[in-house]
Write a structure and sequence with these properties.
This protein has 211 residues and is α/β, with parallel strands linked by helices. It has one domain: Purple Acid Phosphatase, chain A, domain 2 (4-Layer Sandwich). The chain is built from 6 helices and 12 strands. A 5-stranded mixed beta sheet has the order 3-2-1-11-12, covered by helices on one side. Strands 4-5-8-10-9 form a 5-stranded mixed beta sheet, with no helix packed on it. It has a two-stranded antiparallel ribbon with strand order 6-7. Helix 1 links the parallel strand 1 and strand 2. The longest helix has 11 residues. Bound molecules: manganese (II) ion (MN). The site of manganese (II) ion has 6 residues, from helix 3. Manganese (II) ion binds next to helix 3.
Length: 211
């Protein structure tokens, strides 16, 4: 029976991504997905994008992919120092942008719904949710969004919240476990109801409040 595998936020950590996929050991009929924020912060964004293309990993759009497209629309003279560092970090911004701009905001397998950050509470349809929330929501009115929002008959799979770590509820799985901050890269297979993890080789960056 074909399996499905969802991988959390990679942020350019291509070696850990390769190690995690090897641990899962997919067959050609298995489907592989990723929660977005594939790029930036970590060691090798171009190699990471090439890896997902080669292995036919289906990624959704994350806030870092959105940030890249936003920066590339600006004139060079308007770039902030932080935006210049972002472009240096992703190394091949134009080529990466041409690939990540094809990523959808969400992917629905019929059983799981994959998106980068989460659902906007109070809205029933994804189409009615603010894109900024889909890409960046964490708390909503003082509580995590996943305590307040769900979509019937779908397991919601998301990333984005490294500080919060692994989230494991029957209706929602949060897979950003801070690989780029020196923690672990996590994947989840619903058919096996099993998490797979590999340790990060090092802390590639120090995130706001992560340490
Ligand atoms: Mn994110």
């Amino acid at each position: 029976m074909p399996r499905t595998f969802f991988i959390g936020d990679v942020h350019g950590c291509v070696e850990e991504l390769a190690a995690l996929l090897e641990k899962f050991s997919p067959n050609s009929s298995d489907e592989i997905y990723q929660t977005g924020d594939l790029i930036n912060k970590g060691p090798d964004s171009p190699a990471t994008v090439k890896f997902v293309l080669k292995h036919k990993i289906k990624c959704v759009f994350g806030n870092h992919e959105a940030k890249l497209l936003h920066i590339l629309k600006k004139a060079n003279s308007e770039l902030t120092p932080k935006e210049i560092r972002f472009l240096e970090s992703v190394k091949e911004p134009e080529w990466i942008a041409s690939e990540v701009s094809k990523f959808p905001l969400w992917l629905d397998t019929g059983r799981e719904l994959l998106l980068h950050a989460g659902l906007e509470p109070g809205q029933e349809k994804l189409e009615d949710m603010n894109v900024r929330n889909i890409l960046a929501i964490r708390m909503w009115n003082g509580l995590p969004w996943y305590e307040q929002a769900k979509i019937n008959e779908r397991l919601i799979i998301f990333g984005h919240w490294a500080m919060n770590g692994l989230v494991d509820f029957p209706h929602a799985k949060g897979l950003d476990t801070g690989c780029v901050y020196g923690k672990v890269l996590t994947g989840y297979c619903p058919e096996e109801n099993k998490f797979y993890q590999v340790s990060s080789k090092k802390a590639y960056t120090i995130g706001k409040g992560v340490f």
